Amino acid sequence: MSSSPLSILLIGGSGFLSGTLARRAVAQGHHVWAVTRGQRDLPDGVIGITADRHDRDAFQQAVAGAGMEWDLTVDCIGYDPVDAKQDIAVFRDLTPHFVFVSTDFVFDPAHRTFPQPEESDHYLTNNTYGAKKRRCELEILNGDTGGMAWTILRPCHIYGPGSLLGCLPLHSRDQDLIARLKAGEPLRLVGGGHFLQQPILARDLSDLILSFHGNEQTCGEIFCAAGPDIIESVEYYRIIARILDAPEPTIEEIPVSRHLTEQPQSVSFVCHRIYSLDKLESTGVSVPSTPVEQGLREHVESLL
Question: N or C: more exposed end of the chain, with fewer CB within 10 A?
Answer without folding.
Answer: C
